[in-house]
Specification:
145 residues, alpha/beta, 5-stranded mixed sheet, 47% helix
């Protein structure tokens, strides 16, 4: 498995261990992780800290050129908010752990020129299926249902 997706999965596991939603993400520039994070909506009482948003936040303020040369790894297909951040900052590639439990805005990203790759990683699928089964109300809150 790619070391960057492995790091995103590690982040997802941290989120689950903290009582949150198991979605992790890392932002990679020039072969180096510059930001990593996990969904912390529950832990922080946040409306926006999805895994991708947390990774971007933890990367700190970056010049536009850095984003345009970066890859975002995420364990789950990104929602419209996180996809919007990808487009806003011009991130050219998103690598997704899985989209079987939730399909976000992949087509919107593709239409806008983002390279999208879906791995259907077994561990990502197991993490989300187990969480959704155990905490359906929290999952529905996270995706706005």
């Amino acid at each position: 498995m790619d070391k960057f997706m492995a790091a995103a999965i590690e982040e997802a596991r941290k989120g689950l261990a903290e009582g949150g939603i198991p979605i992790g993400s890392v932002l990679v520039h020039d072969g180096k992780m510059i930001g990593r994070g996990h969904n912390r909506r529950v832990q922080n009482g946040s409306a926006i800290l999805h895994g991708e948003m947390d990774a971007l936040e933890n990367a700190g303020r970056q010049p536009a050129a850095i984003y345009r040369e970066s890859v975002l790894y995420t364990t789950l297909s990104p929602c419209s908010m996180c996809s919007g951040a990808v487009l806003l900052y011009g991130i050219p590639q998103v690598i997704i752990g899985e989209n079987r439990t939730f399909r976000g805005e992949e087509e919107w990203l593709r239409v806008r020129g983002v390279r999208v790759e879906v791995l259907q990683n077994d561990e990502c699928i197991r993490l989300m299926r187990g969480f959704i089964e155990a905490r359906p109300e929290l999952w529905n809150e996270d995706i706005g249902v």
